[in-house]
Give the backbone structure.
Amino acid sequence: MRTFPNPSFTGDSADISRLVAEVRCGEVPPYTPSPSRANRALADLLTRDPGRLDPAAPDSVFATGPRPETGQPVPFLPRERLLTRDEQRTAAECFARVLAGGELTSGPAVTEFEDALADFLGVPHVVGTGSGTDALVVALEAVGVGHGDEVIMPANSFAATENAVWARGATPVLVDVDPDRHTLDPALVEAAVGPRTRAILPVHLYGRLADVPALVQVARRHGLRVVEDACQAIGVTGVGKYTDAAVLSFNPYKNFGLTGKAGAVVTRDDELAARARRFSYHGFDPKRKNVKEGGYGLNARMDNSTAAVGLGLLPRLTLRNYRRAFLARRYLDGCAELAANGSVLLPAFEPDHAWHLFGVRVTAGRAARDSIRAHMRSTGRVETDIYYPVLTHRQQTPLHRELFGQVVLPRTEHLHETVLHLPLHNDLSLAEQDRVIEALHAAVRATVR
């Protein structure tokens, strides 16, 4: 079997392997809230059991032994391994503390988590919500999107993006993507602006940031608002700093996954944050429950129990992102030969990427891509996937056929027909990754002539 050495980095690129080693041995501490916002729950946990969140504790992610055992399939995203065993213990302890106190829905952990996450992201305001979808709806309402408006967005995203627009009574306007980033093309966005356009909703696809500076310039020229769908991009510098708002998801499958559905609205705007807090909790005055300040609102606030788990796991987020970058760099090195001979196109290793997903594009087209996936599954025993299997304008509902039946997005469609996603998650071992790389090489040799 071929071997794939660990990557090394020089120059201005982040030395992921060095950073990982330093974090794990404790030389670079994981994130903790600033003293002014130190949360009581986390402080109590660390005081009572200092080793619980110790980054130097044994961690099987970088173990060289195979997991699962040799001959067993390498899963794409194993649900039982979304949290490590140590993370599961931390989550269980945090939840048990809240359960014992009975504050499962509302409680102090929500504000503490919001403050801690705001510190981490370097923004003034975070509003915790019940899901990423809730956060999208809340953010769009907060920037003024309503009935009859249009919102410009891409077609290659999860259904939550379009659903949030529909939920506000607005209509999605689908625009094609940049050929390199695969996120909204600012020039095409500007061409799509019309009299009813209210907002631009870029998606940081697979964790790679859209061209936010260019999109903000377009928005300013036309008096539009910009809300980032950053559900796959937590931890990337700049999220939420230059737009009206950004939206995060803490679904268990995300880079920072918790123990249920949760999300957040991130913003620098005081008034927008106040509107988001009010709308996300029945229109109530944030300081006076049951006293309405707005006409109506949603039951969309984050639960206290989920926020408590978030406080316990937040210190691990930086290491999680280092792990993903490390594994992404290793994929790029291991697949470099396939890229050099023109079989696949690889993503660029850029600092504006959270590596929520690792996609490779098969240059020979859709049939070859599908054959490679089948070969990797049957012969290599490696699972791959395609995010997202159905583009927005190709959904077969009466609504989609009526509005998007004539929509053609050549770049988006070409990406969709040629991309496949390799396993990349927080608990992927190097031995498993070696098997994935080897299976991809073998599949390309067997199927692409």
